[in-house]
Amino acid sequence: MEINLNLLGYVATTLTTCAFVPQAVKTICSRDTRAISLWMYVTFVVGNAVWFFYGIALGSWPIILSNTITFILAATILSLKVRHG
Predict the structure, then answer these.
(1) Cα dihedral across residues 27, 33, 35, 41: positive or negative
(2) Helix (H, G, I), strand (E, B), or coil: what is residue 35?
(3) 40: CB partners within 8 A, 6+ apart
(4) CA distance 85 to 64
(5) How many CB atoms lie within 10 A of CB 41?
(6) I want to staple 78 with a disulfide (CB 3.0 to 4.6 A). Which of 30, 41, 51, 59 is the partner?
(7) Coiled-coil segments, which residues (predicted)?
(8) pLDDT, tens digit, for every residue of 9-66?
(9) In the prediction, which pLDDT does 4 show?
């Protein structure tokens, strides 16, 4: 059985990004960042940026797309944490 690796990548990126979205939406809407670790989000945002550039280096659209979306959401939460934390 031949597996289409791009399809597998798109399935993985959809699942992991969609799993992050509800928490991001809740945090963005409520602006409640008390329970969020600043250093975890700093590390997470930097990690997303590195994954994004890795995806560019590979020319891998699943990696590029998922990390772009997750970076935007995580960076928004990080900025809320810095502003309201």
Answers:
(1) positive
(2) coil
(3) none
(4) 30
(5) 20
(6) 41
(7) none
(8) 889 989 999 998 999 999 999 999 999 999 999 999 999 999 999 999 999 999 999 9
(9) 83
Contacts of residue 82, defined as CB under 8 A and 6 or more positions apart, other chains included, come to: 38
Number of Cβ within 10 Å of residue 73's Cβ equals 20
DSSP string, 42-61: HHHHHHHHHHHHHHHHHT-H
Residue type, 80: L
User: 50: closest CA among 21, 78, 70, 77?
Assistant: 70
Radius of gyration of the chain (CA): 14
Give the span between the Cα atoms of 31 and 61, in whole angstroms: 31
| Position 6 pLDDT exceeds 90 | no
